[in-house]
Amino acid sequence: MDLRVTLFLLSGLYTHSSSHVYQFVNISKTWAEAQNYCREKYIDLATVDNTEDMARLRKVIDGSSGIKDKVWIGLYDNINSWKWSLDNSDYYSDRTEYGNWYANEPNNVGSSQYCVVIEENGHWNDISCAIECYPVCYDANATNRYILGQQGMNWVEAQSYCRQYHTDLATVRNQTENQMIQDLIPTSNAWIGLSRVPWRWSDQSNSPFRLWGQNQPNNYLANQQCVVMSEKTGLWDDVYCGNELYFLCHRAA
Ligand SMILES: [Ca+2]
Ligand SMILES: [Ca+2]
Asked: Does residue 165 register a pLDDT over 60?
C-alpha cells in the first residue's frame, strides 16, 4: 500500500479514537495565572466540547488530591460571548456549543463574573476571574499531538501534506513541545511550521517561543526562509526551503 494512503488511514483511526487529555493542577491560581501555567506546562486550560469530555474531566478531578470545589476551565468572557482559551480550530475540528451549567447559571452577578469553574457537583458557574482555584489543563503526549512525516519533502510540500491529511505543520509553543518533537525526529533535521518574511507559523498562531541555535537565524546567502529543528540538539536553524527533509504535522484532536 502506498505510504501516503497508509498514513491517511492511520490518521483517520487516530482522529476517531483520540480525545482530550486533562491534567489537574494542585496549585490554586487566578484564572489568568492558571492560563499561563497551563500554556507553559501543557497546552492550555481545559476545553470541554461534549458529555464524553466532561465525564473524562470529572474522572481526572476525582482521581486527584487537593481541593476540588471549584476548578478552572478555559471558558471566559461573558454570557453573550463565551470564548475558549484555546481558540484554535486546528485543535478542534468539531467545536460545539456544549455547556453543563448549574441552574440559573451563568448569571454574571454584579457584572463581575467573567471566568468559568466546574463546581463540586460537576456543573459550571461563572465567577470572578480573581478568585484562586485549581486549574485543569488540556494536555497531550507526543503520540497524539504530532505526526512525523517520513517522506522527504520541501517545506511547501510538507505544509500541503500536513494540511491535507492532518491539520498543519507543527507549531512549537514551549520547551516541552520542543522536546516532544525532538524525540520524534529519527535523524538529521525536520521541518517545523515557522517561516518568513515576516516570521510566522503556518497555522497562523502567534506563539512567540523560539529556540534558535547559535548565530541563528542567519539567512545565509539570503536564501534561508524556512525553519528546521535539529534531531541532535532540538535547536532551530533557518535553511533553504527547497531541502527535502522529514517534517512534523500537528495531529487533529
Ligand atoms: Ca455565577
Ligand atoms: Ca541558517
From this structure: yes
